[in-house]
Amino acid sequence: MPWPQNTPPQRDGDAAAGIEVTDDFERFSQRNDIFTRAFWDKRVKSKHTMKFFSSYRMEAAPRRGDGFSQRDFALRNAAWLISDVVSGRRAQEGIREGFQAAIRPDTPVAKEALEIDNPARMSAEVKRIAKFFGADLCGITDLDERWIYTARVDTRDMSEAPHDLPEGLTSVIVLGHEMDKELVATYPSALAGAATGREYSHEAAIVMQFAAYIRNLGYEAVPSMNDTGLVIPFAVKAGLGEYARNQMVITPEFGPRLRFSKIFTNLPLTHDAPQPQGVKAFCDICTKCADACPVKALPYGPPSTVTANVSAIKGVRKWTSNAEKCFPFWAKMASDCAICMRVCPFNRDYSKRRNRLWLNLALGPMRKLALRLAAKHGQRRKPAEWWGKA
Ligand code: SF4
Ligand code: SF4
């Protein structure tokens, strides 16, 4: 059944939490994401983008002083290792698992399915298991097909290929993985990229183990990282946080300082709902991320449906970055950038009482005061300090 008949209606909370679909909506083709375009589109592909990808092997990693020394790249590349092992194991078939195709399950579905007569209890159990495997957050939502890519990418020639998802999937379990605060404080640097790589490696292990658990219960489960669908709208729908100007989901537990993974399943589960708490109202008066972006890739003004190029989904009113400005900056640095995460006033350690008090201010009518209090927030820490050398 074609869009839009096959999809559940938008609930009020989806829009209030930052996901507002308009009549011009079109599902996104992963072939158009900026990382995939870097391999086939001459508007994006350059000597810098190819060097960016090869820098994840030490012999191709450039050395440029503090934050970009051999030990910085060494830590970053080592942090990515488990993710790389998983994503590379079917490269010969054009399947880049976890990035341009779903992770292929390693466990068969048990012939006999556990009887589940209470989906709410099962959902609570799923969240407990998520914690057991090492996820920091877990929410559950329906498999809303709007956010599934139109196709996966065959990495042999970057063409579109079918997802091959099993029939009858109904739910998405969305997992959040906290990034290391001390490393994030050193963005931009190759050292900071270790915070990203470590969570991708965690994600890979956790979604594979989690899917194996569900499959042993006798239900379908497809482990997924950046592949198959856009995780941000699923995270918002699962009530984990709100969409923000910096293109990230702001959560009450970690602000924007986390990554998300997901599992598609037909396990009988109840679904969470979006939880708008006031992040959008704060972003309406704050532009710290857009101001700090070195290449001005982030938008000012209110959310809109304007898109700069094909790497943005069409027909969603939201803050949308210009990926054609953002990714070349990563490529020139030979590492990922998350300055817009580092400077965000919500990027805090919420185990501290003063930060929880700040959050209460930021999400209420005193948000202007909270913004003033955050004037010096998010200063860069020298990578050498992280190594204990400064
Ligand atoms: S990741 Fe860096 S370049 Fe990209 S939008 Fe954020 S601050 Fe700008
Ligand atoms: S820096 Fe400010 S505008 Fe940007 S996401 Fe954070 S709160 Fe929103």
Structure, described:
Helix 4 runs parallel beside helix 8. The protein has one domain. 35% of the residues lie in helices and 12% in strands. With 390 residues, it is of the alpha+beta class. The strands form 4 sheets. A 4-stranded antiparallel β-sheet has the order 2-5-9-6, with helices on both faces. A two-stranded antiparallel ribbon has the order 1-10. The protein is built from 16 helices and 10 strands. The protein starts with 11 loop residues before the first helix and ends with a helix. The structure holds iron/sulfur cluster (2 copies). One iron/sulfur cluster binds next to helix 10 and helix 11. The site of one iron/sulfur cluster has 13 residues, from helix 10 and helix 11.
Note the topology:
Blueprint (H helix, E strand, L loop, with lengths): L11 H5 L3 E7 L7 H7 L6 H8 L15 H10 L1 H8 L30 H15 L3 E6 L9 E3 L4 E3 L9 E8 L2 H4 L8 H24 L4 E4 L6 H7 L4 E2 L5 E2 L7 E8 L13 H7 L2 H5 L21 E4 L5 H11 L5 H4 L10 H10 L4 H7 L9 H4 L4
Antiparallel strand pairs: 1-10, 2-5, 3-4, 5-9, 6-9, 7-8
Helix pairs in contact: 3-12, 4-8, 5-8, 14-15
This protein binds iron/sulfur cluster (SF4) (2 copies).
Helix content: 25-40%
The outline comes out as globular
Radius of gyration: 20 Å
Widest beta sheet: strand line-up: 2-5-9-6
Quote the beta fraction: 5-15%
Mean pLDDT: 95
Q: Structurally, how many domains make up the residues? A: 1
**Which small molecules are bound?**
iron/sulfur cluster
Structural class: alpha+beta
Total strand segments? 10
Q: How would you name the oligomeric state of the polypeptide chains in this document? A: single chain
| Number of alpha- plus pi-helical segments | 16
Contiguous low-pLDDT stretches (5 residues minimum) are 1-6
The helix/strand order is HEHHHHHEEEEHHEHEEEHHEHHHHH
Largest sheet: 4 strands, antiparallel
